Amino acid sequence: MNHHDHNPLKILKETILPGESKTINMEIAKLHTMTKLKIPIIVERSKFQGPTVLFSAGLHGDEINGTEIVRQLIVKKINKPKTGTIICIPIINVFGFVNQTREFPDGRDLNRVFPGSKKGSLASRFAYYMLTEIIPHVDYAIDFHAGGAARFNAAQIRIAPNNPELRDLASVFNAPFTLYSNNITGSFRNSCDKLGVKMLLFEGGKSIDINEDITQQGFEGAKRVLDHLGMLNNSRKSIPAVADSIYIEKSTWIRAKYSGMFHGYTTIGSHVEKGQLLATISDPYGKIEHKMKAPNSGYIINVNEAPIVYQGDAIYHISTELEKQTTAD
């Protein structure tokens, strides 16, 4: 493939030469208090030719665990490549990070406004600059997310179906689970895909939370990908995954049939049998207790950790269909 290398790299009018390190501050808009908001883009280039990889997180401002993964890649100097270029953006939505909210200040979900426009809403302008200034340089990307609200995701990679190149890359990352999920219109992943960037979307943990296990899974997976691309610097070793990823073709949400106090009995990532007791929902007064049972056998890849639920709330995400393992694999 044609790597965008060895030409000087230009982002927001700043030039980064091979062998250089530079932090570029993206300033799109100030806060309403006139406080400047800088979005640091941390660029590390090797002297040697190779691909360009982007590690990004915080597209949703309350999904802190992803930011922690990218921070660790920087702190442990994994982002200093043996070949090629590594770009780290630990927080894309700094506005949301400041307030610990998912959305942009204009109320929009940044992950639904791509490709954006230069003169649109604030989120839309931001999406536009991401796609015009950064993505054209990128060959591979890993975007780190966490579950919304109190819903805790098992560490998983999401890729679009029928894309052998992404399937290979996902198997290198080797998260506990790999989920086939279609690109959503307006999402960062969808726009990257259209521009020819191979993106893995990592999901793990929940919002407003940092979980050590999830951080480790994301960190080690990222290292395996860099190792595979010949970019992991020599002082670092990548650790093989404990077990091969479980590939999920189809999955479904189990929703609460009643409102009440929620007591879950099912651990994240576990395999359950059809009819197995997953949780109970009870009233606060000790009169009623509803049992929730598994509708089918499968893996539990997301658990709602909220103490109180309403009827219709998503409680568990369960696999309904696994990928047919081919013998050639």
UniProtKB/TrEMBL annotation:
Write down the superkingdom of origin: Bacteria
Which keywords accompany this UniProt record?
Answer: Hydrolase, Metal-binding, Zinc
- Pfam families in UniProt: AstE_AspA_cat
Q: Which cofactor does it need?
A: Zn(2+)
Membrane-traversing stretches: none
Q: Which GO terms describe its molecular function?
A: hydrolase activity, acting on carbon-nitrogen (but not peptide) bonds, in linear amides; hydrolase activity, acting on ester bonds; metal ion binding
**Stored InterPro entries:** AstE_AspA_cat (IPR055438), N-alpha-Ac-DABA-like (IPR043795), N-alpha-Ac-DABA_deacetylase (IPR053138)
Domain named Succinylglutamate desuccinylase/Aspartoacylase catalytic is located at: 49-229
Say if the entry is tagged with keyword Metal-binding: yes
Keyword Transmembrane helix on this protein? no
Q: Which PANTHER family match?
A: BLL3975 PROTEIN, SUCCINYLGLUTAMATE DESUCCINYLASE_ASPARTOACYLASE FAMILY PROTEIN
**Protein's name in the database:** Succinylglutamate desuccinylase/aspartoacylase
Q: Which organism is it from?
A: Flavobacterium limnosediminis JC2902
